[in-house]
Amino acid sequence: MSRYLNRAFFSVGVLGIALGALQGCKPNTNTTAAATGDASKSFVAPGKYDEFYNVVSGGFNGQIGIYGIPSGRLFRIVPVFSQSAESGYGFSEETKPMLNTSHGFVPWDDLHHIALSQTKGEHDGRWAFANGNNTPRLARIDLNTFRTAEILEIPNSAGNHASPFITENSEYVVAATRFSVPLDDQNGDVPINTYKQNFKGSISFVAVDPGSGKMSIAFQIRTPGVNFDLSRAGKGKSNGWFFFSCYNSEQANTLLEVNASAKDKDFVLALNWKKAEEYVKAGKGKKQAVKYAHNVYSDANHSATSEMITEVLELDPADCPDMLYFIPCPKSPHGTDVDPTGEYIVASGKLAASIPVFSFDKIQKAIADKAFDGDYSGIPVIKYEAALKGEVQKPGLGPLHTEFDGKGNAYTSMFVSSEIVKWSLDNLQVLDRVPTYYSIGHLSIPGGPTAKPHGKYMIAYNKITKDRYLPTGPELTQSAQLYDISGEKMKLILDFPTTGEPHYAEAIPAALIKDKQVKIFKIEENAHPYAAKGEGQAKVERKGNEVHVWMTAIRSHLTPDNIEGVKLGDNVYFHVTNLEQDWDVPHGFAIKGANNAEILIMPGETQTLQWKADRVGIFPFYCTDFCSALHQEMQGYLRVSPTVSNTPLTFSTGTNKPAVTPTEGADKSSSK
Ligand code: K7E
Ligand code: CUA
User: Per the record, which residues fall in region Disordered (predicted)?
Assistant: First the structure.
C-alpha cells in the first residue's frame, strides 16, 4: 500500500501535476454525491439470499472474505495463508502442515489476488486460487467447503505478486516474481548492486489437474531481472498467451521510487505458453535443484500433509525463440487486463497520463513482420505503435486496474484522482466517471475477467476511508463500494466495510455454488487415525510422555469428560471427533492454559489440539461453540499429578461418581 501512496505523491513531481489534483483523494466536504446511494438496490430482505458470492482478498491479513453482493454482508473469513483464531486453522495439528514452507512454519502472509476456476472462459464454480505474496505460494480453495485445500510454494521467486492468473480452461495458474533475485541454486551471497548481473526473474506455470484441482509446477521460465507486477491470460483468439506487466526495467536496486521511474517506458511481456509447452515437450527444459513445499489437505482423514519437492523444470528464453516478446508500456505499468473477446490488452501505467490499449491481432502482425525495436536482454521488443490499438486520452490520474462489462465497455480504477473511469473499447472515448471514497486500488465486475462478464454491478476496493465510517482509533476500517453499472451512468449504491485490506476480488453467481455445499462429513468415512467414531471408541492412552485422548463431542457432552493420571510435563493430544451428522452443528474445544489455540470441529470431522501439562492441578475443558440449550454443560476436567505420582491413567463419562468418603487432598470440613 505505502508503495503506491509514495508513488502517487512522487508522481506529482514527476508529472508536474499541480498539488490540487491530489485533493481528489482527500475528504470531500461536499458529500452530496456520496450520499446518493440507492439503498433499495443493495437491499436484500431478511431471509433472502444475495445474487453473488464475492470472494475478496484480505491483503495483509492473508485470508479471504466471502461477502454477498449486492448486500455487502460478510459471510465467512476463509483462512488461507494465516492462522485463524476462529477455526483453529494453522493451530490444530491437522492444519499446521498447510503453513509449512522451505523456510519452516510461516503463520501469516499477505494475499492480494483471487482467480476463480474457469471452463471455456466462464466461471465453473469449482475452486478459487490465491497468492501468498511474501513467502511465494499459491493456494487453492475448494468452493464446496470454502476451505483451503492446497498450498504450493514457488521456488526462484520473491514477492509472488503477478499471481494467480488463470487460463480459460484452468490448465495453468501463473506465478511471476515481483522481486528478481539470484536463483535458488546460485550462490546468493552477492553484492546487492550486482542486480544487473546476478538477479533473475522467474515465471511459474502451475498446472491444475482437471479432475482433482491438484497443483504442480509444470515449468518455469527464466527472465531478465525486472519486477513483474500483474498479469492476465489471453482468451478466445488470444488463448495460448499470457500478458504480464513489468516495471523496474531500469534494473535499479535502490530507491526504486526514483530509479525505477527513470525510463519513459517499461514493458508488457507477451508470453506464448503454447510455445513454451512445445519446448517442454521437445526436451528444452533443464532440471534445477530447488526446495519447495507442497501442502495438501484431505477431507478423508481431515489432515494435511507437507511434502518437500527438490526439482523444477526451467526454460531459458535463449533456448526458446518466439516464446517471449516485450511491448513498451508507459511509466510503471500495474494492471494488464484482457477484454472478454481476447483482442484488447489494457495496460495501466501508474504514472502515465494515458492508457494504452494493445491489439492482439496487431501484436501477431508485428511479430510476423518483425516490427521490433531491438531487444531487451535478448528478448525482442515490439514497436509500441505496431502493437497499439490506441490510447485512452485524459482518463484521470494513476490508472491501476481495468475490468469489463461484456457490453464493450471498460472500467479503470484511478488511484491518484480517486475515481473510476468508464470508457469505450471501441473508440477509446471516456464515457463516464464517478468518484471513489477514497483512492481506489482494484475494482471488480462479477465475471469481469472472464469471456462472459455477468455485469450489473461493479465493486471498488479502496485504500483509504477517512471520513466514511465511525472512527475506530488510529486504524480506520477498510472498505468497498458497490456501483450499479446497468445503465449508461455508474451509480454508487452502497459502502461496505471489509476485513484486512482488499486487493482483488472475483464475484460469482450464487446459483453456481450454493447448492453444492458440503454440509457434513460422513462419520463412517472419517479416515483420521485418531477418530473415535462413536462414544464406545473414546479412550486415553499413554505413549511415553505423550497422552492421546480419543474424544467425542455430541450435544451436549464430551467423552471422556473426566481424565486422571496425566503427569506434569506430559504432552496431551486431544483428538476431538464431532459425532454430529447435522448441518451447522460444530463443536469447539478449549482447555485452560492452552498455548496455541482452541479448535472448532465440523460434523463428522476430527481435529487435534496439543496441550502441555505445565503445572499440577485440575484443568477444566469445554465446548466453545454454542451448540444446544445445554452447551454450557458441555464440559469436563483433566487432573494433572506430579511426575512421580502413581495416579493411574483413567477416563470416564458419567461413571466417576462423587466420592462418599474424604479423599486425599479434599476439604475435610465440608465432606462430613
Ligand atoms: Cu493493485 Cu497487489 Cu493487485 Cu492491490 S495490487 S491495489
Ligand atoms: Cu458443543 Cu457447545
Answer: 649-672
